[in-house]
Amino acid sequence: MRELLLAGRRRVYEVLLNAELDHSDIVGDIVDLASELRVPVTEVSRGRLDALSHTEAPQGVVARAAELPTTALHDLCAPLEGRPPFLLAVDGVTDPGNLGALLRIAECAGVTGVVLPRHRAVHVTPTVTKAAAGAVEYLRTALVGGLPTAINEMRDAGVWVVGLDAGGASSIHDLPVATDAVCLVLGAEGKGLSRLAAQRCDLVASIPLHGHLSSLNVASAGAIACYEIARRRPSPTG
Fold first, then answer.
1. What residues pair up with 142 in beta bridges, in sequence order?
2. Residue 237 falls within a domain, yes or no?
3. What is the CATH number for 18?
4. How many other C-beta atoms can be found within 10 angstroms of the C-beta atom of residue 55?
5. How many domains are there within the chain?
6. 58 and 81 share a domain?
7. Quick one: 167 and 119 in the same domain?
8. Final residue of a structural domain among 33, 48, 65
9. How confident is the model at residue 73, as a pLDDT?
10. How far apart are the first and last CA of the chain?
């Protein structure tokens, strides 16, 4: 909620507040920000707030806001402030908690855009937004009809497309294109990358595992891979 107001990317029509909620520091900050931005704040019953929230375990504050803006894929592929793009694409991720966690990781790692397929995958829902903890307000997002076609478009635009899969021949720690325009593609929970998406990637990398377990969940794998790429790229202030 706080990041929604601070980012200013979309119009906020109203902030609804549980009338029984104590005005903690965070809630007080939200109310102050809404007042500064001339966004109406309305106190409502807990029952009405729960009905409007569309998430499990709402935390007492809900906003009515315009839809998130989307960005064309070719714009994501262009340099941003003179720097090559660092993109993240998801292939069939259906768990909203995992997608929300991935978006939060991506924003913190400096990803400049996210590519989401329209079909057979979770979209940015209220549950995803909550799990992302404000990241959706800053990440540029492209919705594409099919990921394999989008991969071809990114490659044509000069972006290296790297799939992440347990069967990848290269180690993510030895990625030769991390400093270039690059898109990291993460596969679905359990199934990994689809065959067609993997075939379209320039290369498929894996995360070396040294314990007894054979895999990581998609959010954990995404964190390792995003930060492995991020550490090899110049910092935005560098």
1. 115
2. no
3. 3.30.1330.30
4. 17
5. 2
6. no
7. yes
8. 65
9. 97
10. 31
Provide the whole-model pTM.
Answer: 0.86
What is the DSSP secondary structure assignment for residue 174, as one 8-state letter? G
For 9, the 3-state DSSP assignment is coil
Distances 81 to 57, 78, 112, 115, 237 between C-alpha atoms, Å: 39, 10, 11, 19, 12
Structure tokens at 93: 């991720």
pLDDT digits (tens, 9 = 90+) for 195-226: 999 999 999 999 999 998 888 889 999 999 99
Helix intervals (H) in the chain = 2-7, 25-36, 46-53, 73-76, 96-109, 126-132, 147-156, 195-200, 218-232
- Note whether 56 and 107 are same-domain residues: no
Q: Domain ends where: 65, 97, 112?
A: 65
Residues 117, 147 contacting (CB under 8 angstroms)? yes
Q: At what angle do helices 218-232 and 96-109 cross, to 10 degrees?
A: 10
pLDDT digits (tens, 9 = 90+) for 228-238: 999 988 776 54
Where in the sequence is the domain holding 212, given as residue range(s)?
73-232
| Closest C-alpha among 222, 194, 207 to residue 87 | 222
Q: Give 57's contacts (C-beta < 8 A, 6+ positions apart).
A: none
